[in-house]
């Protein structure tokens, strides 16, 4: 028999799946379901995200996010074998508590891409709490080796406690994008601006300063909540907060010289910031300039697809921008390596292969199968 898996998240997976079905979004935003459906060894069902909003309002009074979803999971406990939650901390709190006291026995598989209990890990009580919290998951798939090592170190987790629970996988873009966009890759001469899109921990202010006085164009795509605070935006910089769907950004990515990922965050919050934007880098075979983030699995300089800059370093941004704008051969080499990285090591099939292995292993152990 195939394991029956319920997929939940802290945002609507029904919407993410619908956008994929319509060709508007990639399969990687459904976190492996599409690829596993195609392989046929796991039966994965998208669980309805929200039904009774009043329950979520009640849950927030007690510090429990997505209470509605978790109660409905409990009411459907006999309809699945494994619960899979890519964004887990905010929508599994009640289930983990019940699991800890033996009232919820189903395996829970999660992905980890942000640090646990940011800024509190130095406190012994919170360290103990966070350690027990993460070990209560049946399996945790880390999307970054440095983050896995950092978690083990900060929470002082002994190897015997995590060796059968923690694993490492590379989350990457929809593999069908390879042929869809690579064959339509624009030439260097047809690319005439830089692009930066995103909303999590973005430092658009430093990026804008880097472009001030340069004869290069920059297009920033953000959300209404992440509009740059810069008052006097120079004429070579455009800011757009109305284009929000990744599908609508495609023509802009295709005509861009390079993708820029400026980040700012406290050390305690360091995780996989910028990971989603790196999907776009390899999808469109573009070079990248990015604020240094040691927690990412992909080292853009080692892969030869771009340059790191230090946080808030305006001069370093300007230096790297000039290199890519004025050196066609460097641009071509980085574009080719970006394409190769996508094809060989950074794609949805790589992630799905590991996820499938973890889910099958958890299912077999839970059912005492060899």
TrEMBL record:
This is Glycosyl transferase group 1. It comes from Cyclobacterium marinum (strain ATCC 25205 / DSM 745 / LMG 13164 / NCIMB 1802). SUPFAM superfamilies: UDP-Glycosyltransferase/glycogen phosphorylase.
């Amino acid at each position: 028999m195939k394991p029956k898996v319920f997929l939940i998240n802290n945002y609507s997976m029904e919407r993410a799946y619908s956008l994929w079905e319509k060709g508007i979004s990639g399969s990687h935003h459904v976190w492996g379901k599409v690829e596993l459906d195609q392989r046929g060894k796991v039966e994965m069902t998208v669980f309805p995200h929200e039904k009774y909003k009043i329950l979520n309002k009640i849950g927030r009074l007690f510090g429990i996010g997505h209470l509605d979803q978790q109660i409905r999971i409990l009411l459907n406990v006999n309809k699945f074998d494994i619960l899979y939650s890519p964004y887990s901390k905010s929508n599994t709190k009640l289930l983990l508590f019940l699991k800890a006291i033996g009232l919820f026995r189903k395996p829970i598989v999660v992905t980890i891409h942000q640090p646990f209990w940011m800024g509190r890990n130095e406190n012994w009580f919170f360290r103990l709490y966070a350690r027990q919290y993460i070990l209560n998951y049946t399996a945790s798939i880390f999307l970054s080796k440095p983050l896995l090592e950092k978690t083990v170190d900060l929470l002082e987790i002994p190897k015997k406690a995590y060796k059968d629970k923690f694993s490492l996988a590379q989350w990457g873009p929809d593999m069908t994008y390879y042929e869809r966009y690579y064959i339509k890759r624009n030439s260097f001469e047809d690319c005439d601006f830089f692009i930066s899109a995103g909303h999590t921990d973005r430092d658009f202010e430093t990026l804008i300063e880097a472009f001030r006085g340069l004869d290069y164009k920059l297009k920033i795509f953000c959300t209404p909540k992440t509009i740059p605070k810069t008052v006097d935006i120079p004429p070579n910089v455009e800011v757009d907060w109305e284009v929000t769907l990744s599908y609508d950004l495609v023509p802009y990515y295709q005509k861009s010289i390079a993708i820029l990922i400026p980040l700012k965050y406290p050390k305690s919050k360091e995780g996989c910031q910028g990971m989603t934007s790196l999907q776009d880098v390899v999808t469109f075979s573009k070079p990248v300039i990015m604020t240094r983030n040691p927690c990412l699995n992909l080292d853009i300089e080692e892969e030869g697809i771009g340059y790191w800059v230090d946080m808030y370093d305006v001069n370093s941004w300007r230096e790297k921008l000039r290199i890519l704008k004025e050196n066609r051969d460097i641009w071509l080499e980085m574009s080719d390596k970006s394409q190769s990285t996508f094809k060989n090591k950074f794609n949805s099939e790589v992630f799905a292969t590991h996820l499938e292995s973890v889910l099958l292993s958890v299912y077999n152990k839970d059912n005492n199968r060899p």
